[in-house]
């Protein structure tokens, strides 16, 4: 059901995406009316959260049913501690095809009445609230002059990022995300030498109700979007292999790969940013994974010129890895919920050249007979199907492979790929299953379709 305004984009970006989703191949296949309908649905569903919260269970540490039971008990305690809890039952569903996934239905949109006292938060914070988070103090950009702990307030998201930090009110474009209780005073948020930390507003009547996972079973239940979990299974890691995750932060997929290998072998994780490497190591330690080796390094330079060189860290000799995951930096236009993006068209179009540099390194580092998985969390052709077409032309040694599980749609028309090639690709296209009035779609079809926008291609190096 649609209740939030569609995603706010710069006009040039909207026009560009319109040309992508109404390209000649798509128009020839489905017609202008259906193509435009899908595009309008995309713009609307991107601002809304998916229908299910996905949790990856650490089945390398405990059986799935045990984790499901423990999670249910923890979330019941959380609900019982909430003053607005009407029902302490918690529904946790198993995915019929993915054996380490738990799914929790999202309750929303709910009828919540707006109050006169308003707190304004940044767009990123507002999106987190729509997925079950409380409001943390750094995300607050405006609040009433005399706000104190215990005040009941309405929370709004500043979708265009135009509210001045420290303001007492804001009349610009904002979107209501629910009501909460202030945990801090205005002065403790804005008038301190040190940046305020901790929960600033505890959400009690969110527009979309999802459990807060802050501190809940940190080693057993890992919040991760469903398509991101699918990537690890598609890669198909096996115990004893050496695997490279080229753009690994924050480490969710890295740790999943290690868990699927039963922590036997080596998973090398690379990222350019030092503090992100620390986060990967922290996640691996929290999940009791010893096989993860994380390095701060630019993956475009990860191939050593000395093929005889043997080292634990980068750069690596050619053909050093059994499998490579290239979860590439991308424009992120598939992320949900996202009520606004301020990027220019130039910024969005800057990613394909970097992705191709990374692709060159990935192919060189992969052993003959090895598997390369390429993925993004965006919806453009240039970063997805067009990259596949380019890769198949540039690297004759690569062939597309079937994916298991394949629960998303096939690839999108427009890049000149054959029907057989498109069927081997996996594109999570929420606009194909998301309907403003449809709430009776059976599980798990709704869970598999109403996800973030995501893309996966699997190659074999011959």
Automatic annotation (TrEMBL):
The residues that hold S-adenosyl-L-methionine are 247-253, 271, 306, 327
Which CDD domains does UniProt cross-reference here? AdoMet_MTases, PUA_NSun6-like
One Pfam family name from the record?
A: Methyltr_RsmB-F
Its Gene Ontology biological processes?
Answer: RNA methylation
What keywords would UniProt list here? Answer: Methyltransferase, RNA-binding, S-adenosyl-L-methionine, Transferase
The SAM-dependent MTase RsmB/NOP-type domain is annotated at: 146-462
Active site positions: 377
The record's GO molecular-function terms, alphabetically, read: RNA binding; RNA methyltransferase activity
The record's SUPFAM superfamilies line, in alphabetical order, gives: PUA domain-like, S-adenosyl-L-methionine-dependent methyltransferases
**UniProt record similarity statement:** Belongs to the class I-like SAM-binding methyltransferase superfamily. RsmB/NOP family.
According to UniProt, the name of this protein is Methyltransferase NSUN6
Q: Taxonomic classification, please?
A: Eukaryota, Metazoa, Chordata, Craniata, Vertebrata
């Amino acid at each position: 059901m649609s209740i939030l305004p569609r995603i706010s984009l710069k006009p040039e970006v909207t026009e560009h995406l319109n040309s992508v989703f109404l390209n000649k191949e798509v128009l020839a296949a489905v017609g202008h009316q259906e193509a435009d309908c899908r595009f309008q649905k995309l713009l609307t569903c991107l601002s809304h959260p998916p229908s299910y919260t996905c949790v990856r269970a650490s089945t390398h540490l405990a059986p799935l049913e045990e984790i499901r039971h423990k999670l249910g008990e923890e979330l019941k305690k959380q609900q019982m501690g909430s003053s607005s809890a009407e029902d302490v039952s918690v529904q946790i569903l198993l995915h019929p095809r993915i054996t380490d996934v738990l799914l929790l239905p999202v309750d929303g949109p709910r009828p919540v009445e707006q109050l006169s006292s308003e707190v304004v938060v940044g767009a990123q914070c507002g999106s987190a609230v729509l997925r079950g988070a409380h409001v943390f103090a750094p995300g607050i950009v405006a609040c009433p002059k005399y706000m104190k702990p215990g005040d009941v307030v309405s929370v709004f998201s500043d979708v265009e990022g135009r509210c001045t930090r420290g303001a007492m009110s804001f009349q610009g474009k904002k979107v209501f995300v629910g009501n909460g209780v202030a945990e801090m005073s205005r002065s403790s948020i804005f008038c301190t030498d040190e940046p305020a930390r901790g929960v600033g507003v505890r959400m009690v009547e969110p527009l979309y109700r999802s459990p807060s996972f802050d501190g809940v079973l940190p080693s057993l239940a890992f919040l991760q979007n469903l398509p991101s979990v699918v990537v690890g299974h598609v890669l198909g890691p096996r115990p004893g292999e050496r695997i490279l995750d080229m753009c690994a932060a924050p480490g969710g997929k890295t740790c999943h790969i290690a868990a699927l290998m039963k922590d036997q072998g080596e998973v090398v994780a690379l990222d350019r940013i030092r503090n992100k490497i620390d986060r990967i190591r922290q996640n691996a330690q929290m999940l009791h994974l010893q096989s993860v080796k994380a390095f701060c390094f630019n993956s475009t330079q990860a191939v050593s010129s000395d093929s005889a060189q043997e080292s634990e860290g980068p750069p690596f000799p050619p053909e050093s890895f059994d499998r490579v995951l290239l979860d590439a930096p991308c424009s992120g236009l598939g992320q949900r919920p996202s009520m606004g993006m301020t990027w220019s068209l130039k910024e969005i179009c800057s990613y394909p050249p970097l992705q191709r540099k990374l692709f060159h390194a990935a192919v060189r580092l992969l052993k003959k007979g090895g598997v390369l998985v390429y993925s993004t969390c965006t919806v453009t052709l240039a970063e997805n199907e067009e990259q596949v077409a380019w890769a198949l032309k540039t690297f004759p040694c690569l062939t597309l492979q079937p994916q298991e599980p394949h629960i998303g749609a096939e690839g999108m028309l427009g890049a000149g790929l054959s029907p057989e090639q498109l069927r081997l690709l996996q594109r999570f296209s929420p606009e194909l299953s998301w309907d403003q009035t449809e709430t009776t779609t059976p599980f798990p079809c709704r869970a598999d379709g109403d996800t973030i926008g995501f893309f996966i291609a699997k190659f074999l190096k011959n």
